[in-house]
Amino acid sequence: MVYAALSALISALWIAICAAAPEFIWQGLWIALGHLSRADLVSALLIGVILAFFVDPLMSGMQDLLSRARHRDRADSIRHSPLFRVSVSLAFALASVCVHDAMIAFASDRAAEHTGANAGLAAALELTVSSAIVPFAITLAWLSVRTRWLALPLGIIAGASSCVAGWLFSWSVQEVVGTTVAGLLILCLGYRQVVRKPSRDIFVRCARSVAAAATILLAMALLLDSAFDFYHIRQFQLYSVSEFWTDVRFYLGWTLGLLLAPSPYDTADLNTVPTGPR
Predict the structure, then answer these.
(1) Measuring CA to CA, how many Å separate 12 from each of 9, 18, 49, 269?
(2) Which of these, 93, 98, 124, 152, could form a disulfide with 48 (CB 3.0-4.6 Å)?
């Protein structure tokens, strides 16, 4: 039971961080690109060369020694070819350096806007936590649906999570209402997926629900905004351009998090999922 609870918490945290990551990286990259120098590019290439010709071969060699694999198919031979491994290492290094620079740039830029030594760190934490609360709570609600004594309280917390986030981070009424509607729709669509027999593709099915709900809601918001613009009703505009793309990145990260996160049922016995006291 403890192992199942820890697995659920880790999976929920994984998905929540993925939901918050795209916006954090996006804002940081825009700041970093304004200060991009030749030294940054050279340092990224240097790290890529070290990864490609030292770190990756060393790790691959250790993995081969541990696995003692004797037979490899064609896909394995391609995957272990020098060109493929060098390309992947260089791409990984460039991405790592860009993400690192984005994070540093975001924190530094926010620190310059506010007084205090830790202002940049506080802004980064605020962005991450505010974006992660709703996916975290909804994921826990999904995973607890088959445990009767947890399903109701966690479902209520998930439904109210956007209100909690809005209260903690001073969201506008419009942001709270929009996030609540989206969260409740995603929560209900996900419930339809998880009430089925537990399976290892549970997060894949939930990812489809998140993507479908986000597509529908964002499309409806664009149509309503277009109608308001046509009739020159500015006070009811739902989205600015920046807010729209912020939500797109949020739902994209949430969907990717569900696709990337390990399912709690990967190692658990699917026939012995706890269902609460009988």
Answers:
(1) 5, 10, 35, 19
(2) 93
